[in-house]
Amino acid sequence: MKLAEQWKEKWESQPGLMLITVVIWSIFIGLCIKAGALLFTSIYSLFKPTVAQDLFEGLNLYGLMNQEIWYYIGLVSLLIGIACLKAYMFYLMIRIFLTINLNHPFSKKVSDLISEIASVAIQTGILIIITTASLKWLIKRGFDIPSMGAYTGGAFEYLLLGALIYAIAKVFKRGVELQSENELTI
């Protein structure tokens, strides 16, 4: 019951933040579905190889699976890792919006969550770079790989996002220090 009361109180006092939280929840659920579908169909394709023709939204890795199963497993693992990191980043955003209080916005918990989002964004960018390099390596070796721009695009954007959020985390950390000094002074 206490959680429902907190939600009601937050909704009444900070409706804008709660509306953003609902949008982030919907994106998070979509990313979880994508990661789960990739994971399920990838595992299922090991037992029924024809499933690899349409892993998720037309992703066809059947040719790679027929040529070399271990490269297939490695590539699919990288794709699942990217999807999971993206979902986790939105989960952290949800936690921030449920934790933050606009009356006293600077808190250690929110600062730590912002730092963790920066770290996850950088990890996502690096994993996308590794996946793209792996794809180029496989194509160079003559493996049948379709275009995968929807799955491996945006590495630079995630690295930039991580750097920007890291800078915001530093500012937020300083805000926590100033807010605690002001509370001690008063």
UniProtKB/TrEMBL annotation:
Domain of life of the native organism: Bacteria
Stated name of the protein: DUF2975 domain-containing protein
Segments passing through the bilayer: 20-47, 69-92, 113-139, 151-169
Organism in which the protein naturally occurs: Cecembia lonarensis (strain CCUG 58316 / KCTC 22772 / LW9)
Listed Pfam families: DUF2975 (PF11188)
Key words of the record: Membrane, Transmembrane, Transmembrane helix
